[in-house]
Amino acid sequence: MPTVTMVGGGQLARMTHQAAIALGQRLRVLAERPDEPAAQVTPEVVLGSHTDLAALRKAAVGSHALTFDHEHVPAEHLRALVGEGVNVQPPPQALIYAQDKLAMRRRLRELGVAVPAFAPVESAGDAVAFGAEYGWPCVLKAVRGGYDGRGVWMPDSAGEARAIVDDQLAHGAALLAEQRVELHRELSAMVARSPFGQAAAWPVVETVQRDGQCAVVIAPAPGLAEQTAAAASALALRLAAELGVTGAMAVELFETGTGELLVNELAMRPHNSGHWGMDGAVTGQFEQHLRAVLDYPLGDTAPLAPVTVMANILGAPEAPDMSMDERLHHLFARMPEARVHLYGKGERPNRKIGHVNVLGDDVAEVREKAERAAQWMSRAVWTDGWDPHE
């Protein structure tokens, strides 16, 4: 049976390992530390950095495909591996559009895909001129490496923009400016594509962001017009084909007040917005990603319930005295229907340490349950004041 190498030892690799076990496959991970989430549970671990070509080569030896827990591997290293015969999926010429936000926006504009107005920022003057043209606040983004609200700033004035740009350029960051969109909500269209060219799409979901970080995912997106949902899925499938993507891909979208869809980000790997499918779809994103990078026929993406809501378990401002194990006991006693996924990570403020999936029929009821469960696992406090000992 195949061995797949995944670069990165985070929770995405850990959950991909779970899917590999069910398929009789082996997942080898390249992790920087033995206590990383995937390294804790995967028998084949290569310790090393994703920026070290020698470590990448060692991890790739004998594997049937090399894929990613994150997009931060230097493109020149991936091209070297491809030249040496390694089956890199997605290939570096596609992955660059998830690594480099400016390259992605330029390519999408060439393809006629709607994106927010943007411009490269090579000096503070560039940002000031952009803000003057498109209005304040505007958005400044790191071209590479930002995620979960990191590497994103929203200056309200020319002076604030100038201070941010001067600081970031002094530290070697590349930046772009982007128009701040008045949006109705954020959506995600997830698809998977194989080297053969087969592709499959999950229902379009709504993602609820708090402080720049995904907190809740509702599948399918409530109240989304059928025509708009179909257009979002078609766009994601088109981009996967046009860019040569293999494996899972999330297309993060802004839905404006007028119903227009704008592409915000691309992620070419399993993604937070797809975690609901572990329990709520016939084939979840982690199994589908393995099928895709190994060029297997893809699985059915149909939902298993009218509504699935995923809520992230985020580290509390101060970790509770109650152990995570005891919190889990109490949760299951009150909400036996909750599906809990913990990542083996230490607790610290706002860190993603797990997620909860709840399935049901009513959006409001299912969402309330999922968020209540996640809050309990995070803070050991029930949002409705329920006391398990009374």
Structural overview:
The chain is α+β, with helices and mostly antiparallel strands and 390 residues long. Helix content is 33%, strand content 25%. The chain has twelve helices and 17 strands. The chain has helices at residues 11-22, 53-60, 75-83, 92-99, 101-110, 124-134, 158-170, 226-243, 277-280, 285-293, 324-334, 363-379, and strands spanning 3-7, 26-31, 44-47, 65-68, 118-121, 139-142, 152-153, 175-178, 183-193, 199-201, 205-210, 213-219, 247-256, 261-267, 307-314, 339-342, 352-360. Strands 9, 10, 11, 12, 13, 14, 15, 16 and 17 form a nine-stranded antiparallel beta sheet that branches. The chain has a four-stranded parallel beta sheet with strand order 3-2-1-4, with helices on both faces. A four-stranded antiparallel beta sheet has the order 5-8-6-7, with helices on both faces. A hairpin with a 5-residue loop joins strand 9 and strand 10. Helix 1 crosses helix 10. The longest helix is centred in the middle third of the chain and has 18 residues, at 226-243. The radius of gyration is 21 Å and the shape is globular.
